[in-house]
Design brief:
0% helix; five-stranded antiparallel β-sheet; mainly beta; globular
Length: 107
Amino acid sequence: LTASALPSFGSAITLDLVNSTGVAGALAVIGMGFNQLSTPALGGTILVDPVALPSFLMSASGGSTPLQIPSATTFCGLEVFAQGLVVDASAPHGFALSAGLRLKIGS
């Protein structure tokens, strides 16, 4: 999981996820939240306590979801954590989990 750019005020970025299955149409979910976790689950480790769970179908190479960064400077320094999940029959428990991503607004 990567971000297309640094989360600067008022910007629109994307969170980009590689398709672990290599098959078009795989379901992906990106969990986003304000708290980190380290909870073993689904054959991996859940790294974020999600407050938003955008989902999408991936192309064979991957997919992305948009993230609008607020323009208000009161959000300066706010950290947003994210992790991707792909439904993948060949992965443990049928799910592949990405590495975590930490975004600091205004950086």
